[in-house]
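Here is the promised in-class demo. Please do not try to memorize the tokens; focus on the logic of going from shape to residues.
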């Protein structure tokens, strides 16, 4: 399903739903960040997606990482809680969802990088190379929070 993100856009459509989503910030032993290039909007992102019935938030993060990247991970902490009403996501089925996402810190523990129906590219990116990627502002905010030493969990 195609999507369009609206971030602090006064012309954005009005939200008509909200759903719990998770994302995971993962670095390898070299400090590179696990990123995907999404198939639904062609932007780079950290892996993530919606919570499914019957799973915990941490289980959802592990599942989403596995599904989108092939990497197995273990959740180690919380980076932040993101609920910006000025960030809405419009889907081609008419749903316009207000952002609500919990971003976790996780460690890779196995697997092998591979694409999926949700990721056309999976890559490990040095922090210094993030500027070369088209990363959505809300995802860059999560990454900035994740790489800032000593920052307490963010919430909005």
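The designed amino acids, position by position:
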């Amino acid at each position: 399903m195609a999507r369009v993100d609206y971030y602090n856009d006064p012309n954005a459509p009005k939200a008509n739903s909200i759903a719990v989503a998770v994302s995971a910030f993962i670095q390898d032993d070299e400090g590179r960040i696990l990123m995907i290039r999404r198939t639904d909007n062609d932007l780079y992102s950290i892996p993530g997606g919606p919570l499914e019935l019957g799973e915990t938030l941490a289980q959802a993060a592990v599942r989403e990482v596995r599904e989108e990247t092939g990497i197995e991970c273990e959740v180690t902490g919380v980076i932040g809680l993101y609920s910006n009403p000025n960030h809405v996501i419009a889907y081609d089925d008419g749903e316009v969802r207000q952002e609500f996402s919990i971003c976790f810190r996780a460690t890779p523990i196995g697997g092998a990088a591979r694409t999926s129906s949700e990721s056309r590219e999976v890559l490990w990116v040095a922090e210094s190379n993030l500027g070369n990627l088209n990363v959505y502002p809300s995802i860059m905010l999560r990454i900035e929070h994740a790489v800032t030493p000593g920052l307490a969990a963010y919430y909005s």
